[in-house]
Amino acid sequence: MKNKYSFFTLLKNAFSYHENWGKAWRDPEPKKEYEAIIIGGGGHGLATAYYLAKKHNMRNIAVVEKGWIGGGNTGRNTTIIRSNYLWDASAGLYDHALKIWEGLSQELNYNVMFSQRGVMNLAHNLQDVRDLKRRTHANRLNGIDAIYLNTDEVKKFCPIINTSPDIRYPVLGGTLQRRAGTARHDAVAWGYARGADEMGVDIIQNCEVKGIKRNGNDVEGIETTKGFIKTKKIGVVAAGHSSVIASMAGLRLPLESKPLQALVSEPVKPIIDTVVMSNAVHAYVSQSDKGELVIGAGTDDYISYSQKGSHEIVEGTLSAILELYPIFSRMRMLRQWGGYC
Ligand SMILES: Cc1cc2nc3c(=O)[nH]c(=O)nc-3n(C[C@H](O)[C@H](O)[C@H](O)COP(=O)(O)OP(=O)(O)OC[C@H]3O[C@@H](n4cnc5c(N)ncnc54)[C@H](O)[C@@H]3O)c2cc1C
């Protein structure tokens, strides 16, 4: 890889509109049959394929994606990575993931821009204080590096937060996980895709799964927009569409999908060097490497597969953000989008 992208190759490609740029993964047509097929080319589907190939030596596998890889929630999230979850099982799972993130750029030889800048969760009422203290204790019992901060400590860690007691959502305290942070969300899809492809995994984009063929309790294959593909094993890793795909095999999953929104501002100089989350008002803020504020909002109340979401939710989030960070009051928002969870 190093020689392939030398300075001269970069220069040559810059003048030839990247005509000779080596592809990071192949673009194969589906084979007639695979040992296993992963449905969904997001971070989870691609990672599943990567580890099946790497750790379980399964090379005759494919990832089928109806659009482009990382085009679902993987490319739409606010990139926050943390493991400060309350329940033992969640804490265990997310901390295992956090440890993987800590070595992921080296593992994939691809910079996923993992930045352990800390994640703070704010408490705005007495119930939040109780919940966050309980969560901090539970986290520490699980070996997770969470600490509880009082209002002054919150202010010290992130000076631009308005800690006046007179605002609608006063800051009564918060938690901090220093090992938590952010990563470049597309890079994780691209890094896993490249790694999986190198081990022989076929990544098939623009290939929508339309049906699952069963024979009794066995799976025989999938119907796709690129034809029928035989397989006996399927991994459904389609996030909010998992229940739709499971229903193709006659399985009913107890899931509901709802739109979840995010937005980014115009880029500005570094102003916030951590991630601040506020579950009570559903507003999350961090700053991207380009300088944009990355803002996460809440979910809509209704079930939907739309990747938009309502204006009302964005308005609520932004009004909370302006109270908490008056310094942002004259910033312009650039883009808004939705995914589903
Ligand atoms: C606005 C927003 C903010 C978020 N913020 C955070 C955050 O800060 N931190 C965090 O940890 N999580 C966050 N999340 C959640 C996170 O994005 C998801 O948990 C994660 O991206 C899911 O990855 P995935 O690979 O499971 O799903 P996806 O990336 O959604 O991939 C599923 C893929 O399946 C494909 N697919 C669906 N149906 C079919 C079909 N019939 N045939 C073929 N392919 C199909 C889709 O096109 C899609 O690419 C956020 C989500 C949203 C929407």
Question: In words, what does this structure look like?
Answer:
The longest helix is centred in the N-terminal third of the chain and has 21 residues, at 88-108. The chain folds into two domains: 7-76 and 186-248, FAD/NAD(P)-binding domain (3-Layer(bba) Sandwich), CATH 3.50.50; 95-183 and 257-340, 2-Layer Sandwich (D-Amino Acid Oxidase, Chain A, domain 2), CATH 3.30.9.10. The model has no long low-confidence stretch (mean pLDDT 94). Helices cover 30% and strands 24% of the residues. The protein contains eight helices and 17 strands. The chain has helices at residues 7-15, 43-56, 88-108, 126-141, 151-157, 185-198, 242-248, 311-324; strands at 36-39, 61-64, 80-81, 119-123, 146-149, 173-177, 181-182, 202-204, 209-215, 218-224, 227-230, 234-236, 259-265, 275-278, 283-287, 293-299, 333-340. By secondary structure, it is an alpha+beta fold. Helix 2 packs parallel to helix 6. 37% of the residues are buried. The structure holds flavin-adenine dinucleotide.
Order of helices and strands: HEHEEHEHEHEEHEEEEEHEEEEHE
Classify the oligomer. single chain
Quick one: biggest sheet?
8 strands, mixed
**DSSP strand count:** 17
Corresponding CATH architecture of the largest domain: 2-Layer Sandwich
* Number of domain units: 2
| Low-confidence sequence ranges | none
Task: Report the β-strand fraction as a percent range.
Answer: 15-25%
CATH superfamily of the largest domain: D-Amino Acid Oxidase, subunit A, domain 2
| Lateral strand order in the biggest sheet | 5-6-4-14-15-16-13-17
Shape: globular
Mean pLDDT: 94
Alpha carbon gyration radius: 22 Å
Which range best describes the helical content: under 10%, 10-25%, 25-40%, 40-55%, 55-70% or over 70%? 25-40%
CATH class categorisation of the largest domain: Alpha Beta
CATH topology of the largest domain: D-Amino Acid Oxidase, Chain A, domain 2
In whole angstroms, the N-to-C terminal distance is 36 Å
